[in-house]
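User: I'm putting together notes for a lab meeting next week and I want to include a structural view of one of the chains we've been expressing. I don't have a solved structure, so I'd like a prediction I can at least talk through. The sequence is below, exactly as it appears in our construct file.
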Amino acid sequence: MEGHAIRGVIAGALCALTFSIASAAVVNETGQYALAQGQAKITSRLSLTNGAFGTQTLALVQYPLHSASPLTRYALTEGEMLHVVVVRDDFQSFGHLHPLPSQSGIFRLPVLLDRGHRYYAYVSSQPAGLPEQVFRFVLQSGAATHNLTTTVRGPKIRVRAGPYDVFLDQTRLHAMRSQPITVDINRDPHSPGIAPYHVAWAHAILVNTASLTYAHIDGASARGICCEYVLRAPPLSKGLYKMWLQFNDGTSVYTAPFTLAAQ
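Assistant: Thanks for the context. Below is the predicted structure for the 263-residue chain, given as structure tokens.
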């Protein structure tokens, strides 16, 4: 896997996001709407406070527009109330986490952040009766950003993810057009593990490396050919995108990072 992964673990009653230890100033921030389509139907707010042993606690609260009462009712997406996607500023690490359900509408995650990096946290949810809402926050905003032109690698069609070789049929897409992307996921026959391989689920998350807009592909459909799956990419504006394809073989979740160009 490219760079290092951001992993979520259980710590007491909270999900923990593990990075290298660093300190960060207290942050109170209102999120910026991050989907290329649609518009904000709610307000999303985040606070990041220092804790013990170098950790910080991320607290998320969302409100209906013009209301001070937190939202508590959400439609489950992939079985979760909220998805928190955290991306480092050089796009070399990635985490997809889920806070525990909250009856109060306040969701918490303890986090540790690498020194010298800025992180973008995307909070995705579907409040009851509303379309999907995604908001972007900046964590450790005082840190200098890296030069993305040197840290974002160019398009490539093959990535190693655990014991799997993952291939895309293309890395260049037509801008502003929904289109299929074919993915081959093949287990290395010399790698230990269960066989035969079967995808329990697969999805992808995309971030525009310039505008930082967010998109995702909810699922993949099998083509009836061994290990070959189809993702339907949404219409994307022109630009370079980092895409993280995640899939589950029944024992573990793997992440395969790619770079796509929409032209």
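A couple of points you could mention at the meeting. Residues 6-25 have pLDDT under 50 and may be disordered. Residues 61 and 159 are 36 Å apart (CA to CA).

User: Perfect, that's what I needed.
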